[in-house]
Amino acid sequence: MRSSLLRTTVFATGVCVLTLSVQPQRAYAFGEAAVVFAIHALQSFMGREMDKVGQNITNSLNDMTNPNSVSSMIRDAATQEANYAKGQVAAQGRIADAQDTAMAGFMRRQQEAGIRDEHMMNPEFCAGLDTQQTTIAAAKAARTALGAIATVAEPRGEAAKGTPSYYGRAQGVDANTNFHLRRYCSQEDVDAGLCSAVSRLPNADQRASTMFMTDTLSADGAVDAANDFSTTLIQPAAPAAIRGEQATSTMGREQMLQRRAYNARMSLARFVMAFITSLETPSVALNADQKAEMQAEGLQPLDKSSWLQAMSLEVNRRVSSVKWNASLQAMPPASVMREVATELAQANYLALQHYRLGLFQASMSATRVAQNEEARTQHASNKMPSPTINP
């Protein structure tokens, strides 16, 4: 475009010079007209060329068909930028989708792990369940032992046939003394010449430690010693039985009434002591966790334990066991809630045992009240004269 404009300008200048040089010298007016014409011709030519130049410039800017025009280059640049933007948006979308997919997979695995942890049985829960089953088995065995002790103690307290006091209290006293010297002879008894050697358990039938020193009574005589302690504590020798004419006379009927009341009170007292003894009777085998707990408490592990021992180990395990407390810290919420539920069940079970013992205590309290009232009534009636009743 610039070379075309230059050629046009040179051509016009040449025409003007040629026109001026070839014309002859004429009059002044004729020469002026020629100059004016040449100028008009040049202006006309220059206008057309300038229009072409403007048109060329406009086309170079706005012609969209020309790939080299500014508009085409701007359009191509904008299109490319738009393509870049769309590609970037698409890439970001794929990245976001990939992140969402990965996060969804992670959260799903995390949820599955949580579900697994929530439903997985905790080892401490299994150990507690085994111990609780041992406790229930020991409770059943304790009831059996209670029945066995009561079967022996009840006839003795009633001075039934075949028992030491059937023929008289003196016989019962003599039998109790001989029994003590045979099984529980002390050094004082030896010095008095009542027995020849000190027994393995001297005076065990009169010491509270015989029953309450350990939670499990050993099977090598400790159970019998605890039962003998109850006998010494409650009823060392039973009164003689009322038999024959003693039972059929008027005074005998009164004595029989008093004897039945006496037997009932003694039965209640002996039953409570037998109940305590039965809870300490070795009856169930301990598992490995219970033996480990006994060893951790500084006790000699036992092959068999009582209800009281099993219950004590289960309570102490949740108080002082390092293993259980360490497991508690790592337990998921569901396992902790199971432990809480177990604790509540255990508390309810112990509350039931307290309730049963409360029944015994209430019965004994009622007995004491009745005895006091009976003694006071008899004391008041003895001061009254016998009435005369006319037929």
UniProtKB/TrEMBL annotation:
**Can you tell which superkingdom this protein's organism belongs to?**
Bacteria
Q: Spell out the residue ranges making up region: Disordered.
A: 372-391
Give start-end positions of Polar residues composition bias: 378-391
Task: Supply the name of the protein.
Answer: TraW
What lineage is on file?
A: Bacteria, Pseudomonadati, Pseudomonadota, Alphaproteobacteria, Acetobacterales
